[in-house]
Amino acid sequence: MTSDALERLRRILPPSPASAEWAALDLQGVAEAEAALGVQLPPDYLDFLAVYGAGLLDDSLLIAAPATAPGHRYSTSVVEITGTFRRAAAKPYRAEILGDGDMYIHWGVDGGGDFYYLWRVEGESSAEWPVCVYDDELTVLPYGMVEFLARACTGGLPGELQCKFRGNGHEFLHWQDQYRRDVEQYGSGSYIPG
């Protein structure tokens, strides 16, 4: 299923220009992230990283790199945001909905910080982890990250989740391309790659 979902995604969502150059660097953080989190990351996430790397889908969903590898001064990491999410999940009003926050790995954030994109650690293999979306309510979806992204780009998500993703012409920007675009738009300093 992962390869089918990835192929569907590739047909409708071209990788960013920087993806080919920087995806390998994003993958270098996998061992560090897995050691820090004490789990193996889902294979479809690793497949996604190999093609796209970490970055931004439609200016609405930031897909985090596994860990902050050398040269990643401007990326967000799964290790970093999972730690932040777990601390926030321990608050009583969130714990009532989520249960044990340590059961979740945080892989993505929306631009407004309202939606948290997670994996719930369950089953014998990380390939079985469902994608969860938390926005003061928890929605558990019976598929992985790449299937989630493919559905987001084709109008196949349930109700209000689909509203976060515009209709046609989706764009993925690797975090390096996003950084370059921000520097060009806002003129905030000089771009220094890696």
Label this structure with key terms.
SMI1/KNR4-like, 7 strands, alpha+beta, 194 residues, seven-stranded antiparallel β-sheet
Describe the model:
The chain has 194 residues and is of the alpha+beta class. It has helices at residues 2-12, 19-27, 30-37, 43-51, 78-89, 92-98, 145-154, 159-162, 175-186, and strands at 55-57, 61-63, 104-110, 116-120, 131-134, 138-141, 172-174. Strand 5 and strand 6 (138-141) form a beta hairpin. Helix 1 (2-12) packs parallel to helix 7 (145-154) and helix 2 (19-27) packs antiparallel against helix 4 (43-51). It is globular, with a radius of gyration of 16 Å.
Q: Which helices and strands, and how do they pair?
A:
Blueprint: H1 2-12, H2 19-27, H3 30-37, H4 43-51, E1 55-57, E2 61-63, H5 78-89, H6 92-98, E3 104-110, E4 116-120, E5 131-134, E6 138-141, H7 145-154, H8 159-162, E7 172-174, H9 175-186
Antiparallel strand pairs: 1-2, 1-7, 2-3, 3-4, 4-5, 5-6
Name the quaternary structure. single chain
List unreliable stretches of 5+ residues. Answer: 190-194
CATH topology: SMI1/KNR4-like
Order of SSEs, N→C? HHHHEEHHEEEEHHEH
CATH hierarchy class name: Alpha Beta
Shape: globular
CATH superfamily: SMI1/KNR4-like
Give the integer mean of the pLDDT values. Answer: 86
Query: Going across the major beta sheet, what is the strand order?
Result: 6-5-4-3-2-1-7
Helical content class:
40-55%
Biggest beta sheet summary: 7 strands, antiparallel
Radius of gyration: 16 Å
What CATH architecture do you see? 3-Layer(aba) Sandwich
Instruction: Tell how many strands the DSSP assignment holds.
Output: 7
